[in-house]
Each structure stands twice: as C-alpha cells, then as structure tokens.
Design a protein that fits this description.
This protein is α+β, with helices and mostly antiparallel strands. It has three domains: about 110 residues, Butyryl-Coa Dehydrogenase, subunit A, domain 1 (Orthogonal Bundle), CATH 1.10.540.10; about 110 residues, Butyryl-CoA Dehydrogenase, subunit A, domain 2, CATH 2.40.110; about 150 residues, Butyryl-CoA Dehydrogenase, subunit A, domain 3 (Up-down Bundle), CATH 1.20.140. Helices cover about 50% and strands about 15% of the residues. It is built from eleven helices and nine strands. Strands 2-3-7-6 form a four-stranded antiparallel sheet, covered by helices on one side. It has a three-stranded mixed sheet with strand order 1-4-5, covered by helices on one side. Strand 2 and strand 3 form a beta hairpin. Helix 1 runs antiparallel to helix 2, helix 7 runs antiparallel to helix 10 and helix 8 packs antiparallel against helix 9. The protein starts with 6 loop residues before the first helix and ends in a 6-residue tail after the last helix.
Length: about 375
C-alpha cells in the first residue's frame, strides 16, 4: 500500500498551489462577499484551463487530460471552491455527455466544453425535491420538433455563468406514478432561462443560483437518448467519484482552519506562555489533525477505486459524510482555539466555518450518504 502521491501528482499539486497563491487568491480577494462577476470567472478558467482539470475524468478519446479521479481530488483539495467549481461543473457535464449523450450532443457540444470555450452546469434539485430525484416536477413536453420545459431548479453551481445547462426533467409517469426522468442539454444562447443568485451563509463568492424554466424551448435532438427514462444512471455515474471530490473541498477548508489555529496557538499568550502549551488546546489540535488525515485517506481510497474501474458506492459515501462532518468539527475547533477572536472577521476561521457548513450539502446530505452506506452493508434499502 502506497499512501504517497506519484511524482507527477506531486508536481501537479505544487503547480496548482503556485497558481492559487499568485493568481487565483488575488482575484478572489477583490470580491470577498459577493458572487464572482463573469469576467473574473473567465479569467479563472483561462488560468486553470492548461491544468486539464475540466477534463480530468473524461476518457482520453473524448479529450480527457488523463488526470483521473485522484487528480480531480488533488485539485479539489488545493483550489478554493469558488474557483474550482467552475472547472468541476464543466467536467461533470462533459462526463455526463460522454456517458449518456447522443452522437449529436457529443459532436456539437462536448468539444466546446473540452476546449474551454463554454461554461456548463447541471440542474437536478428543485425547491421541493432534493434527495429524491424521482420527485422532480420540472416537465418536458414534446411539441413538434421541440421540447418545452417548465419548472424550477435550485442549488445550481456555476449556473449564473453557464452557457450549457444539463437539466433533468420529467417526460411522463411510470406504473407507480413516479416521474420518468430524462436529461436535456439547454444551450442558453438559443434557449434563454431566468437565473436568481442564492444568498448563502458561506461560499458567498460562488455562482450558485436558482434557475427558472418558463416555456423554455429545446430542440428534441438535445435529449439524452441513451438515458431517456434512466437519468439516474448517468447521475450516479458521476456521483460515485464526485462525492469524494466534494468531500476534499471541505477538507481543504479544514486544513486551512487547522493551519490558522496552530499558528494562532503558538503566538497567542495567556498566563505568560503560548496557549499551545495548554493541554486542552493541544487536545483540540490533535483531534483536528487526526480528523483531516482520516478524511483524506477515505477520499483518496474511493477516488483510487474509481480510477481502477471499481464502483466505490459505499466508499464514496463514507468519504463524503465523514469528511463533511470532520470539516465542521475542525472549523468549529479552530474558532474555539481563537477564542472570542474566532467569531470576528479579523481572522479567517469564521469564514472557514461558514463555508464548511454549506459544503456539507452538495451531491447528497450527510444523512443520505449514511443511508447509501447502510444499503451497501445490509442489502436493504432504507429509501427508494
């Protein structure tokens, strides 16, 4: 068992760290509490595009960079989420086009994402539908040679800047009365949608929004034919590795919080000595570091399995729920180490805490992840 990155992966991470420090963080610093403007998002895309993150898990024959799921995880652990999500959403849509898109979708839209020419995003969740995608209410009705989409999508990462939207809609009902789900690719330039930014407690620079579809007309060839009625197949195909990637976004925050707490504990004086010399403070630091290391091992195990062609159903959900809970615990402890200063904006730990709280939700809540693991362990579904 080798728990070290390869030389190529190590160099990849070092290069990303330099780009983040020299170019990405200065851009983010100019917009501390508001969604990044589109021109800044374009600059971030141009900076990171040569690294191949937006095609990390794509097959080589479709323009994949060869980084794989582990490489995507390294990027998630290194790049601030507000910048990383732009590349991640491009990559996820590209993967889904590869997995379930028609030849026309692959030839017309995939090259524009692979080249970095277009932003993309996915919309599945709705105001009344989150963990149960079969409850989707967005409808797609065929009229002539076009589908008419009506509904609302929420929690759409990169949705405000997306040129292409992968939208899951109901095209009918099955025998049990559940929605038959089908993905569609919406070219926003040809089929405009309404977007509404979401005002969240954390990750406030991210382009997360609500998308309103009112009579949006989409060519019928933009349907994912291979996934018609089986949207769960391509959604699960990306979630299997995406959950560990999202978990590493949380662990990045935990690592930043731990580093800040450690530095503060060595500098802050109480009773004539640094608080790092107090047993209770050391206990908090030890717990923080242990939670971070355990989380990383779980995440990279699942991503490595995905790269090997294995299905990490339980492993990816273990990584997601454990790491998100760990990040919440670590960032909370970091605030505690800082004492009253931890709840002020004079120090960064309050932001890490808010951001970690937000990142526990994407791609399935902590509770849903536990139910998935339970299903894999027992063979019994606690939900359908």
């Amino acid at each position: 068992m080798d728990f070290q990155f390869s030389e190529e992966q190590r160099l990849f991470k070092e290069t990303l760290e330099r780009l983040v420090s020299d170019k990405i963080e200065p851009l983010l610093a100019s917009y501390p509490e508001e969604p990044l403007p589109r021109d800044v998002c374009v600059k971030i895309r141009e900076i990171l595009l040569p690294m191949g993150i937006h095609t990390a898990r794509l097959p080589l024959e479709h323009g994949g960079s060869g980084l794989g799921a582990v490489g995507m995880g390294i990027a998630a652990e290194t790049i601030p989420y507000e910048a990383f999500e732009l590349l991640m959403c491009m990559e996820v849509v590209a993967m889904r086009i590869c997995m379930g898109g028609s030849d026309l979708l692959r030839s017309k839209y995939l090259p524009r994402i692979v080249s970095g020419e277009r932003f993309s995003a996915s919309g599945t969740s709705e105001p009344d539908t989150g963990s149960d995608p079969r409850g989707v209410k967005t409808k797609a009705v065929l009229k002539g040679d076009r589908y008419i989409l009506d509904g609302t999508k929420i929690w759409v990462s990169a949705g405000s800047v997306a040129d292409y939207l992968l939208v899951v809609a109901a095209t009918g009902k099955d025998a049990q009365g559940k929605s038959i789900l089908t993905p569609f690719l919406v070219d926003v330039a040809e089929s405009p949608v309404l977007t509404k930014p979401l005002n969240m407690m954390g990750i406030r620079q991210a382009q997360v929004c609500e998308i309103i579809l009112e009579g949006v007309s989409v060519p019928k060839e933009n349907i994912f034919l291979e996934a018609a009625g089986h949207a769960h197949r391509i959604l699960t195909g990306t979630w299997l590795s995406q959950r560990s990637v999202e978990a590493l976004c949380s662990i990045r925050l935990a690592q930043k919080a731990y580093a800040a707490a450690l530095q503060y504990s060595l500098q802050r004086q109480q009773f004539g000595k640094p608080i790092a010399s107090f047993q209770l403070v050391q206990n908090m630091l030890v717990e923080m570091r242990t939670l971070i290391d355990c989380s990383k091992l779980l995440c990279y195990r699942a991503l490595s399995m995905f790269d090997q062609g294995r299905r990490p159903d339980a492993e990816s959900s273990m990584a997601k729920y454990y790491s998100c809970e760990a990040a919440l615990r670590v960032t909370n402890l970091a605030v505690q180490v800082h004492g009253a200063f931890g709840i002020t904006r004079e120090f960064p730990v309050e932001k890490y805490y808010r951001d970690a709280r937000v990142l526990s939700f994407p791609d399935g809540t902590i509770e849903i992840q536990k139910l998935i693991v339970g299903r894999e362990l027992t063979g019994i579904r606690a939900f359908t």
